[in-house]
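CATEGORY: protein folding

GOAL: derive structure tokens
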Amino acid sequence: MSDNVQEIKSRLDIAEVLRAYIKLIPAGKNLKALCPFHKEKSPSFMVSPDRGSWHCFGCGEGGDMFKFVMKYENIEFFEAMKLLAEKAGVTVAAGAAQGGAYRELYDANRAAKDFFVAQLVAAVPSAHQGIAREYLVKRGLTAETIREFEIGLAPAISDGLFRALTGARYAVPEIERAGLVIKSERGTYWDRFRGRVMFPLYNNFGKVVGFTGRVLPSEIAQTGFEAAKYVNSPETPIFNKSKILYGFHKSKSAIRDTKTAIVVEGQMDFLMLWQDGIKNVIASSGTALTMEHLIALRRIAETLVLSFDADDAGLAAAERSIDLAQSADFNVKILTIKGYKDPAEVVQGAPGKMAEFVTKALPAMRYYFDRYVHPGAPVADQKKSVRVVLGKIKQIASPIERLHWVRELGVLSGLTERALTEEMDALKVPEQVVQKAKNDELQAPEAPQSGAERQDPQTRSELVGERMLSLVCAYPALRAKVLAAEKDFAPTDVELLHAMTDEGIGTVSPELQARADLISLRSGLFVGENIAPEEELKRLMRELHMEALKKRQTELKQVIARCEASGDEACVAAALKEIDSVAKDLHTI
């Protein structure tokens, strides 16, 4: 795998890879940009084409092109490698055979999608085309939304799609493996979807991996039984329903920006909210959220706003989703839409009103309090309902949040915090799924780490020193003046200081290479910045000197303590004299 990674890196320019996602501005020999991973007004995101790395000096994120694609696309390492390998024209040896097979499945699904779309807009209309169009218009979808999400129609014939795909030379085994047809006992093939409005399902790349087919209002199965309202593609090598969130490929940028995901139940709910201007929305496609969904969301969202139908199935799905999400340390809110059947009906009847409902979403525990806790109820009933809520609280990942809701429950129920805590501690609850999530992530393959990533904390003195060295990298004429401040630099930084050349930082020991890379990268931030270099250097030298004096003060206090303990009065007197001098210097600096 390492060979594949290195070959991909050697063939691709990191600047060109990142330029496909963000706007890069020249900054000396490097490039800078507004960081896509946190909000900022001035660029603090730097890219080094020479080192093949990037780093944000605002949020501390950094790495290579793999790390960037993983983080931006919200995908795993292997998915990022496949994407970059395709750009680089590199065949990933370990998965070459598997990748080829997947491409055929993707191609078959894409061709099926094109076929369904064509059926809905065919110039020669069919009876089912009219019914499908009437249904979509009646549900409130605009032509633009239908086009954007490539909604189509599966004709009500037995093998229309099968004949179209085989006619286009798609192999029958691949069509079947893609879940598009079903083989009969006689060995013939039937289309899986017949007489249905078709919603393509996309993965994180925006590739079609399956479908949801909604039965047409008038469609009755030939057996005489009413057909299932919704039919999904079966599990295939590229489609796993528990991992797919409908619309996520479109909404992930808005979710990343707001740190909030609005979760609705069905495709129509998603489409109507999207059409109504709410872009940070996803649909769970008629099921409760899964841990796979939450792992994908947790990388870009902190808060989930859940909206499920008010029927028994919807409430059960909502409860499972709340418990799972809270144990994964999300802030969970519940969106209640009284007077309406579902979010799609809200948008259709009152455009813009869903945005109001979202602002009024309640914390999930308030939802549980309203649902289960009834003050004044008989003791037996109250004990039962309080235990239900305590079980929910116990699954919350954050101890601080658990304590908060125990206290709130005490206020509502009139029970003491101690009694509630004892009762909660005695309850058995499912395994903390947050730990499972962490384990899953730990087991996931990771991108190679860049040497430019620094994990250990820095002192204030080191931070100021690094900025000074970066300033000198940008303005080499200042180097002689910085040498005058050598005594104030942190010991580890003196080597970096002496390695400075007119070209930047020269050869340093391996353990300092990562810091040298960051210092050099940071120098690009000064390019185009409206500063007076010499004045900035004076300010930094003054700040560095102040940090050095503070450090000396701390050392002298320790000396005094040791000397007092040993009864060495002369030592104490000398240290006191020096600490007085340092205090005066700090006062006059």
